[in-house]
Amino acid sequence: MADTLHLQIITPDKLLVREDVDTVQIPGKNGYLGILPGHAPLITELMIGEISYTQGGTTQYLAVAWGFAEVLSDKVTILADTAERSEDIDVQRAQEAKAKADEALRQAAPDLDYAAVQYAQRRAEVRLEVAARAGHATTAH
Fold this sequence. Notes:
- By secondary structure, this protein is an alpha+beta fold.
- The chain is 26% helix and 44% strand.
- A hairpin with a 2-residue loop joins strand 6 (49-55) and strand 7.
- The longest helix has 20 residues, at 114-133.
């Protein structure tokens, strides 16, 4: 059995990560999944959340919104609608998106698309949490 996993994170725009890693944690549809080398094969839908992976004792964080992950015993492939490394997150833009979503929910207009606003709110919160892990901002809560 291999000691590492080959991790690929791909968005419609680019190949974001292609590295050999020790562990991966992903936001699956039914909760977070911790993946180690030798994991049983699976395919899961991804939710809005945080992807983390360790490599030689260092942990990297990414914000992700939707997609799919294929897990094999020696490889994890993530096809994400959007994914951002912590250092690439525009904190001001995320704070503004969260404030706008919070205000829309407070106003509760009759024609409000709650699902879309809650999606925007959660995505902004995750982006702020991931940025905070890299020391770029305080947490969203």
